[in-house]
Amino acid sequence: MCKERIKDQLTETRGEDNCSSSRSWLRFPLGIGSRNEATLSLVHSVRILEPGGRCRRVVAAEILEHIPDDTRAMAELVRVLRPGGTLAVSVPRWLPEVINWRLSDDYHNTPGGHIRIYTDHELRWKVVNAGMEYAGKSYAHGLHSPYWWLKCVVGVDNADHPLVKAYHQVLVWDIMKRPHYSAATRLAEKALNPLIGKSMVLYFRKPE
Question: Can you give the CATH number for the domain in which 156 is found?
């Protein structure tokens, strides 16, 4: 089955998949702004050992900014898609990311860290050049941009700073959908996403 084959080939990279013969979609869900083992490993592997044209949907979340040969990685994402399949690619948005880089060298100068900042035009051009048709764009995680700016100011590894801990609790309320809190955070994020959403998501379709 598609799921087992992809799991086998991703053992080294510690990536996760959600591709099955029934749903036929592949996902690499890495945390926004995280520097976990999956990210550190995926920068060394841009080969998906899955036969071409098998998946209906592929989601590449916060991966390409870590991979030196992003052109080859994009080609692999396109290759495993079947004709008519859809691809969603999320990367850190240009403006919030530029601010992070300028506030702290530690934010990106780390093994497996971010090695590039995409503009929407650059990412769109690269994926279209890999054989996809552009289908749209959205922004997400508007509440996360100020959080990371704060971490860059006080130290990206300073998780015990009172302001960082307080802001992190707000994000937890939002993620866990806590009553009385999540409604406010969702409204705030909806308002902030078009302005300072930390993630940019581009959508593509593979021609029939």
Answer: 3.40.50
| 113 pLDDT tier (thresholds 50, 70, 90) | confident
Longest Cα separation, the chain: 53
88 strand-pairing partners: 59, 203
19: alpha, beta or left? (left if phi > 0; alpha if psi -120 to 50): beta
- 10: nearest Cα among 80, 115, 85: 80
The helices-and-strands tally (H runs, E runs) of the chain is 8, 5
Residues with Cβ within 8 Å of residue 142, at least 6 apart in sequence: 188, 189, 190, 191, 192, 193, 194, 195, 196, 197, 198
Residue 1 has pLDDT above 60, yes or no: no
pTM score of the predicted model: 0.77
Number of domains, the chain:
1
**Alpha-carbon distance values, 46 to 40, 63, 68, 202 (Å):** 12, 10, 9, 20
3 closest CA partner among 15, 19, 16, 14: 19
Residue range(s) defining the domain that contains residue 94: 2-205
Reference 140, options 54, 185, 181, 201; nearest CA is: 201
Are the C-beta atoms of 103 and 166 separated by less than 8 Å? no
